[in-house]
# Entry
Amino acid sequence: MLEGVIDRRSATVSKRSSTARAMRFGRWTLIYAIVVVGSLISMFPFAWTFLSSGKDVAELYLVPPTLWPRSPQWVSNYETVWQLIPFGQWLFNTAFVTVIDLVGTLLSASIVAYSFSRFRYPGREIFFLLCLSTLMLPTEVTLIPQYLLFKDLHWIDTYYPLIVPVWLGGGAFNIFLMRQFIMSIPFDLDEAAKIDGASSLRIFAQILMPLCKPALATVAALGFIGFWNWFLAPLVFLNSPEKYLVAVGLRYFNVGAAQGEQAAKPQDHLLMAASLMVALPCLILFFVAQKYFVQGIVMTGIKG
Amino acid sequence: MSQIVLPGQAARAGFSRMRRREAIEGYIFLLPWLIGYIAFSGGPIVASAYLSLTKYNVLLPPKFIGLGNYTYALTQDPLFIPSIIKTFYYAILVVPPGIVISLAIAILLNNKLAGTAIWRTMFFLPTLTPIVAAAILWRWMLNPDIGLINFLLAQIGIKGPGWLASIEWAIPSLALVGLWTSVGGAQMIIFLAGLQNVPADLVEAAAIDGAGAWTRFVNVTLPMVTPTLFFNLILGIIFSLRTFDVAFVATNGGPARATWFISLHIYQNAFVSFDMGYASALSWMFFIVLLAVTFFQFRLSGSWVFYAGEKS
# Structure
């Protein structure tokens, strides 16, 4: 407002620069307004989840809905979650699989990417194409034979199906990302180290990997979020409730109600509480790691 | 080795030894992926092709029945072809708006804003919400009688539809949930990355020549991000056609199989009915559809995707 007035007054003096300034001011106001509105819409259901997790279940279904809980009961709701379901156990299972799989992904994807980007051998291009083609494959095509394979290996209802494939390759997307990144690092560094007598493994571990930190951070953060919320494979390969990962376990609140089991009384408020506790680690991680994300992917765009 | 060796020879012998060593090391480092590929991708692909020609219920050994599964699916299965159509309907509702909105968010966030970390996280929040919670939450928000959305619509005098409970609105409702969970997510991050590659001097040059914001976007920024756009389009279509989680949790295929997507149909046949042979045939047909769609897009891409590094 004030700026507009000042702009108009000085218009005669330097008409061009002041209109430019007014336009720039208007532009930024507009951008911020859109970003604020957009992010509010985007986060609204999440905020609503938080508010709902402090209500009792009857209040959840009130018409018209209440915004702030009438008698906030966050503490007791969150406590009930821990008593009602083996929540701690599921979180532990999930953390266990996530940590092991993250280490596996980082090691495996980067060493395979090292092979694709720094070594020449017959068949390399074909292997790389095969690797990329798995990105396009629907999970369903491989899921059934995998299930049968794991059944023959007596791996059903164990964590092996969730861990071994990850350690063997680390996912085509991650290999691709790491390869692109390593390719953008000058080859001279390897050569210099090689002349000094460094082994390939040492070049990988002490020269290339430290330079790959942005890509590793991207793979690690996206990997963490992916493993933490993993749904289909744990649903298919695990049967015992005490072995569930938490994303599948949350279905308890859902399936129970649908099947008229002991959980028949609606407990969506507890589900909301549980979900927030599940999402919290990812939220913190994303907030911390987001600045590396863009860096990580940008660099990979440099060489095709 | 003898003392009298010509320098060139020695170099060549040393060179080929080095090359062999390089190749061996390359294979060693490739090995984890190669084993994984054979065991968990390549092998299963071949196995599922074979299984698709059999009747197999896990308990008894597979019985070869030729193309029986395929003909049954195409001529008799009352759910297969409708499930493919529903899946495509969902993808059409999700992919184009998803691409446009996530590109718009990326362009907004690409401005040097104060508090970038906070904005990015807020837009990313839906991606971090566990799918079961998102489904329940939306089932409540979209509840025809007590849901928030119809409540708000009623305030402005509109009678909202039945959303997830209505046969016509169930897929659009799922699309809405799908959009909400995805537009600020990986797609947006990838667009953000793509925008970093648009040369600033090119945009400035256009501005000096008097091009307005919209003209600059259409004629400079958009062509430069077409490779990213193409990448997101390909993956967006593949992922939306493969959608499973949302439908499985929010509607479980209902009401009256209105959201019975192909992925649910395969899951049902494979892991509920344990009709593995038939489910394999279904997944192969689905795979072929996906390949065809992707191939078609690559053919089309020549006419609209612009690679800066490419000669015209």
